[in-house]
Amino acid sequence: MSNEVNGADAVIKHKTGISAIWLLPIIAAFIGAGMFYQEWQSRGQHITISFENALGLEINKTRIKYKNVDIGTLDDIEISESGDGILAKVLIKADMTRFLRSDSQFWVVRPRVGSSGISGINTLLSGAYINLEVGQSERFSTRFTGLEIPPVASPNAQGLKLNLMSSGGKLLQEGNPVLYRGFAVGVVETVNFDVDLREISYGIFINAPYHNLITSNTFFWNAGGFELTTNVEGISVDFSSVEAFLSGGVQFDVPEDLSLGERITETADFTLYPNKTSISEQRGYEYLEFVILVEDSVAGIQIGTPVEYRGIRIGRVSKPYLGFSQTQEINPDEERIAVVIHIEPRRLTQNNDYSLEWFNNQFLQWIRTGLEASVVNANYLTGAMKISLDMNDGISRSVERFGDYFVIPVGQTGFDGLLEKTDSLLAKLNALDIENLIANANQTMQSADSALQNVDEVMQNTNNAVIAAQAVIMSMEQTMLEAQQALQGLQPESPLYRELQGNLMELQKTMEQLQPFVQQISAKPNLLIFGDEVTNDIQPKGKKSQ
Amino acid sequence: MIIRSCVLLSAFVMFSCTSTVAPPTMQHYLLDTAANHSSSSMTSTSIIKPGDVNEGVRIEVVSLPDYLNQSSLVMLVDEHKMEVARFHSWADRMDESIESVTEYETNRILLEGNIESVCKLCYDLRLSIEHFYPTSQGDVFLTGYFEYTDALDNVKRARFNLRDEMREDGYQEAVKTMRRMLVSLSEELAKHVAASSQNPT
Q: How many CB atoms lie within 10 A of CB A489?
């Protein structure tokens, strides 16, 4: 027996290739890559929105919403390089990146209180969020400038944007309504002050289809508050809507005397008038330019002061005074004040049957036959004046020119004319030198006996004195007559005077009756509540009873 | 018990504050009544005819003391103390009443005295009243002066100082006495007018 190890040589097999085990990590790597790609694909798009500040924004909490649907999250907030704002880093979901158009708008929705009401109350609990309003551009963008206040009108809304220029009146706020005959058809979008023009510029938006109402003859006016007008039918109060009455608004319409005009299809500038009445007063009319040369004060005359013909408004003052240099150029010796007026014939006629040229010729003809202007009081309380035109019959004159302007002569009417005539009368009386005249006459008469040859001269002197005195008396009579007419309303015989006197006497009597009562109340203020111990009057006693 | 006491106390306070005394009624007086005119033996048409409006004596009260230019009656209660009545009031203006009484009475006296020539002269008398009031002792005083222009255009002035006594008590009697004194004044006026017309120089 043998313990012999039956050893056999090991068969060594050389394996070729890679072990199958390596498939596992490879597969895992592929799976990981696929997951990474999928994650990368679904992660979305990073965009940057700039705001003035980060009020209400919280990283990883503030959502980005479009039509109240979450489309992204605020990732990070950085201060801009210039330091004048913040940059909100936002991740938009991948499937929402199609809304990232270059004209899309972002703004922060947070609680706001404005003239149009309270908005964003729901964010008190949920926190502020960034809202997206999608634009219409085809271009894709990742950098946006956020709006500090929400847009009043949707960027996609159909309609018409207009600019209204206002030089004063009640200030409007963003969000105030734009009304057409009381119906809200638009909104005030922006309010800016133009420093160069010194005017307030309002951007308004008229919603479709009401933008078709805007034509070249449309006039806009401030509809805030109410308008009180008085006429023969009484007092009427007009206000557009409760909202406009409280917070302001804009109303527009086409004046009745104008055609509708051409439709406005693009952004245009319009004037915003303070109220509806001022449209007819201030709106631009075709005009003829004349000048009146005023000798007296022009205080109370300003740009826009009415020019009337016998009470009918036919124009306005364009320049209360022409200016020193311009007057000097025209006539250095002219001491009167040149007031430039616009005669606006279109105020009188609603159609174009009569041309401006026809009116010009007609006015020149009227000036030749006696048309005169006078500065009269328009309001005794405020001291405002107006220009009144009237015909002074029986006058024939040529039309004067002052530079390029035709001159409407200034007439003497009312108190001014009366005062002037009174002054003229006094001047005539002073010029008469009556004392010397009488002295001369006496002297001549005394020497008449010794110098009969001077009789003719004496008679001539006396005759001249009588004629002069007669002229003065006639002038005085005329002046007194005019004074009587001017003061007729206040003469003791006039009904107004008697009525006034009667009222004053009645008032005095009432006051006398009230006097003891007032004295009692003054002495004892609680008299009205607790009354007084009423005692009868002490009366005089007759002699028989004493 | 406490509530009942409070209610009783409140009621007592409220009743204490309430005046139960009725106030005296307001009395109004006319110095010149229609009865004064119609009771005369002369009818109104015989005194002033429509065509003779300017032919009688015309009297104008040019001045009155302030206490007569108000509606309440007054009374002198002491040497310089005037009492203004609260419940006795004139129903008409005193200047017009005095004018009416004196003008009517003067013309009546002149006409009764057949002084016809005066009607042709058309005197205008200007009457100034300085004092016209009753006293608490029953005296009534009327003082002042009158001016008139005679037929020769001379302005003449004469003073009057009248005193009368009330026969009964009260403001009503005072008013009667005051009117009686105006009649006495009218007699004075008529005398001067008559003397002036009979002796114009």
A: 10
